Amino acid sequence: MIWLMLATLALVFIAGFRVLNTPTRRACQRLTQRLNIEPVHVESLISQMGTQQGQAFVRYLLSGGESHLNNGAMVLLIYQTFIVNESDDNLHYWRSLIRKAGLNADISPQQVRLALDFLRELAPDAAEMLAFRLRYQQLFAQPSEDAAGEGDNIYILDDFR
Hints:
mainly alpha, single chain
């Protein structure tokens, strides 16, 4: 009888260990720890992508280095600010999270195409997403150096990354 309880306990620990170390959980942890956010945001993104694209996104996050993490964060930003809530306050919030994490917060055309690919289950309009990118870039455009005063000793560190 005791061996049956020990065997059951061992199976529970093995099953729990496997659940806690699934690739999806590891990918979510990687992104949420870097951005210092709740896992629910990344998990909802993955669930909205659908099974096939969600697994591709998880593999993408786990297979790459810093650039894949940055691209994954930008897909999350696009999802949260283009699909979930398009308000300017939400846009400022997600951009500040990405900048605090030390990632590049500019949206490139490649990242838009990547988001379109991963979010194809939601059928976002490519033209609307490109218009969103242009609005985003204009909203957070760096002031030109000509507009800065002569002898200005303030430098933006993003230019040196």
